Amino acid sequence: MNPPQPLRNDYYLSNFLTLIEVVTSQYSDVMSTSELAWLHTFGQLSDDAKKLYIRLLSRKGALFRLDKLAYSEIDNIELAAIELANCQFAFIFQPGKENTPTWPVNSVAVSALFTKPELLRLFDELSAWKSHKKDKLVDALCQLSPDISAFQQDIIELRQTEHLNVFLLLFFGNSHQSLTDFVLSDLGIQHYENYNIDRQYRFFNARKNIEQWLALSALNELYWQAKEEKDFTAIEVMANQLPQPIEWLPLERKRQKLINHIARDLERFAENSSTKLESARLLFSQSELPPSRERQVRILDKQHNYADAYQLACQMQLAPKSEEEADMAATLVGKLARKLSLSVPPRKRPRFTNSFLTLNNTDTSVELIVAEHYSQQGWQCYYLENTFICGLFGLAFWDIIFSDVKGAFLNPFQRSPKGMFTPEFYLQRKVAIDQRLEELQSGHWQHWLDVYKEKQGIANDWVNWTLITPEVINHAIAHFPMEALCTLFKRILFDPKSNRSGFPDLIAFNEHTFRWIEVKGPGDKLQSNQIRWLNVFQELELPAEVVYVEWSEAQ
User: Fold this and answer.
1) Helix or strand (DSSP H, E) at 144
2) Which whole-number Å values give the CA distances from 33 to 17, 164, 440, 529, in the listed order?
């Protein structure tokens, strides 16, 4: 892999121009008049003005002191600021200049641009507050309502920034990524696959969906703010502000995620209020995403409605929507069956092949110590954990992962398609995936090393190029039963988010066979996702063991 390359000092300008170019090529027909006007005006700016605007966009707040702005790649910051002001992309407050408002913005925001010593030097009236912290000093200053000219500095306010949220949403397909996500590509750390990005396959197709997404993101942001502030009253109000069900699946999934968050909090602070508890249950019933059904079952249990709780738990068990839901359903069904005096077969406790080793504790990790122990016994042992099966999955389905699917790719910097870790990934590509599974099982697809050589170094959420090697791939081809491998792939496809983790730490090969080894140091125990995979290996009769390590007393 190539070493990181030094960033150009104007890397952010080329990033922003890339963003604009991609967004415009895909979405100009659904942009508002003001957004198109903004794009046109921005295109007419000089490079210096563009750089200054983007620099300030990337900083916190909308107010900045001109005397504090220093960017070596901008030839004349003052002229760039004036150019922004002339096209209404900014406003410059200049002491003593005509038509400058006396107090145009929040006084706290202006005061934040100055240090405490600077404020004391500018305002003699604050001398009595000299020993107080700056926030108290600012409170006192706000009572004075000074003219902005009293600050004796040119202050620039950035304007027309609201369009950036739309552009970022259209580019990334979410409301949490920013321009900083470009940097890894600029450094040469990441290289991305080539895939189609055009109107035919774009994510958003109607202005309505863009507005709905932004509104839902704003509500989601308010929720997390209220949660952080422990404002449960505000969260209760939000439960009544949620939009109605949305036909477009990606947005409906986003809505249901927020429903689950709000409903869970309603459940938590319902305390002994049966009304509030029922409100939480009804809100959960509007979501199909886990853990909605689990929480409904638990609320019904609290309400002593065991029959309905048992019926819903059985539905979960028969058709789980995630691995965690499947695990939880088995527990709930047994618990509720006992309350209803129903007979249910006892759950089998998992029994795995266990080994116990007493080894010397060296400076390295316990996994590597165990790997060395098996190497001394003639095994070729690799500490790959989730990387082994996930890497094989990524190589086997590479062309399908990066195939043209509507809404999958929005920008040139994706490691996988949008929706990769949802059930929709498989549903949208079912024909191609099922065909590849058949080809793998029949031996007609054997291009592991071809894909590896062609794609090495290209970013893929499933392939860790630092650990997956041709040697490991050859071992897998030689020893791993393809039918079993396809079964593992199918399980990953059922719940990609959960099932891409939990694999044993080590994979070991010898001339005739292979063995999975889950390593547990002193006091460590199996996690639920690890137990799930060990159970699968048992069903498929794949060799796997759990190695419990104790340290030798003689060091």
Assistant:
1) helix 134-144
2) 20, 14, 52, 50
Virtual torsion, Cα 95, 99, 104, 107, nearest 10 deg: 20
Tokens of 379: 């095994």
Contacts of 239 (CB under 8 A, 6+ apart): 262, 263, 266, 279, 283
Spatial contact of 254 and 216, defined as CB atoms under 8 Å apart: yes
Task: Look over the chain and give the mean of its residue pLDDT values, rounded to a whole number.
Answer: 90
3 state DSSP class of 307: helix
CA dist., res. 267 & res. 287, Å (int)? 15
Per residue in 511-529, pLDDT (tens digit) is 889 999 999 999 899 999 9
The position carrying tokens 């099966």 is 389
The Cα 169–Cα 204 span in angstroms is: 10
Q: Is the dihedral of CA 288, 292, 297, 301 positive or negative?
A: negative
User: In angstroms, rounded to a whole number, what is the distance separating the alpha carbons of residues 350 and 86?
Assistant: 72
pLDDT at residue 6, rounded to an integer: 65
Beta bridge partners of 383: 506
Flag whether pLDDT at 103 surpasses 50: no
Contact status, residue 518 vs residue 324, Cβ threshold 8 Å: no
The DSSP H or E segment spanning 449 is: helix 448-455
**Quick one: tokens of 423?**
């059930």
CB 226 within 8 A of CB 234: yes
